[in-house]
Design a protein that fits this description.
Elements lengths: L22 E4 L2 E7 L6 E13 L2 E9 L6 H13 L6 E5 L5 H4 L2 H8 L3 E3 L1 H13 L7 H9 L5 H9 L3 H5 L8 E2 L5 E4 L2 E8 L6 E6 L4 E5 L21 H9 L10 E4 L8 H25 L4 H8 L6 H20 L4 E4 L5 E4 L5
Parallel strand pairs: 4-5, 5-6, 6-7, 11-12
Antiparallel strand pairs: 1-2, 2-3, 3-4, 8-9, 9-10, 10-11, 13-14
Length: 359
């Protein structure tokens, strides 16, 4: 446990759900943990006891929150959960916090398995649907390769691999449901007789939706409120001048309005309390990274590729490097768009960020 984590509290300690099983974290709320084949090696999913109006009155069952990527191991774990953890009740609804593969990848599988609707923001639904149909994504293909090259990535092998990675999203999200129920900021979703308020978040995904229940003081924070790591906040080829980091930092301020003893149920890591301090930690983390970039770029104009080792001091594989490049551009864009750095476009077609001209 690092020093920042010690400022938070983990009510369940180091207890984790076994594969294909669940742990009850609050009455009617069960925690599922599934393996991911990345450095970030797991995702938390949630089962909430629910009831919905049916043809012959109230139907008892469960709402699922997020679904994992499409892979055989996760499907098998879902089947085990269906068989052993649902108390003989059906899945009534699937809520997806956002369109990233580890959250929406198996939503179509679960929805079809139970003839259940998917609830998601309109923006994230349409982005996910577009990516499954187009077969290209921010993590690969021509546009992504050109975008990274324009920000100084000159490793020919890495650029070639990114250019060839045209089925990256589809490999983990082969399909999404044909229809959805829209969630928007401020909406109330009734789950098991409890009111859950939708809280939109930006910068990490197009329109991430977290859910807060005032009655139980539970926050399904998705990827917007993680206890151990800082959520990836990137700029992508399809919106190259996005101010993603500013959007993210503004979004997490919303969590300061929640009670201090709120129990955070994150998509990665363990259930925790101390959300107000976690917001401060994230603000401090990005403020420090921005200061490091300001200092380096003031000495001489730098590309995002040159700045990346300042933010990410460890060795990165290709998957991690694409996220790191996107996040480095997000930090530089904030400094540029706020008038703290100047961005230039060189004759070599590469963007550089440097000190403002002297008055």
């Amino acid at each position: 446990m690092n020093l920042l984590e010690r400022e938070l509290h983990y009510p369940l300690g180091d207890t984790l759900p076994e594969p294909g099983s669940t742990i009850e974290v609050a009455p009617g709320v069960r925690w599922i943990r599934m393996v991911l084949p990345f450095a970030l090696n797991h995702i938390n999913l949630w089962l909430l006891r629910d009831e919905l109006d049916g043809e012959h009155g109230k139907v008892q069952g469960w709402t699922v929150v997020d679904c994992c990527i499409s892979q055989a191991e996760s499907r098998a774990q879902w089947e085990q959960i269906f068989e052993t953890q649902l108390q003989g009740l059906p899945i009534l609804r699937v809520i997806v916090t956002h369109m990233h593969p580890d959250h929406i990848g198996l939503a179509d599988f679960v929805c079809k398995r139970w003839n259940a609707p998917m609830w998601i923001s309109a923006t994230d639904y349409n982005v996910a649907r577009l990516l499954t149909l187009a077969g290209d994504s921010a993590a690969g293909g021509e546009a992504a390769a050109d975008f990274f090259a324009a920000h100084g990535l000159n490793d020919a092998d890495a650029i070639a691999k990114i250019r060839a990675r045209t089925n990256y999203y589809v490999s983990m999200v082969p399909s999404v449901p044909d229809s959805y129920v829209r969630m928007m900021d401020g909406d109330t979703v009734m789950i098991g007789g409890h009111a859950w308020r939708c809280i939109s978040g930006y910068g990490h995904a197009p329109e991430h939706i977290a859910l807060y229940c005032a009655e139980t003081k539970l926050l399904l924070g998705g990827d917007m409120m993680l206890p151990r790591i800082s959520t990836n906040v990137s700029v992508h080829a399809n919106e190259p001048e996005a101010n993603s980091l500013r959007l993210f930092l503004d979004s997490i301020e919303k969590f300061n309005a929640l009670p201090a003893d709120t129990l955070g149920l994150p998509s990665h890591g363990k259930p925790f309390t101390g959300i107000h301090r976690r917001v401060e930690q994230l603000q401090e983390h990005h403020r420090d990274r921005l200061a490091e970039l300001m200092e380096a770029c003031t000495l001489r104009p730098l590309t995002a590729a040159e700045c990346m080792p300042i933010l990410f001091k460890r060795e990165l594989d290709l998957h991690q490097m694409t996220f790191a490049m996107g996040e480095t551009v997000a930090h530089l864009n904030l400094l540029w768009l706020s008038g703290q750095l100047k961005r230039t476009h060189g004759k070599d077609g590469v963007y550089r960020f440097g000190a403002l001209a002297a008055a």
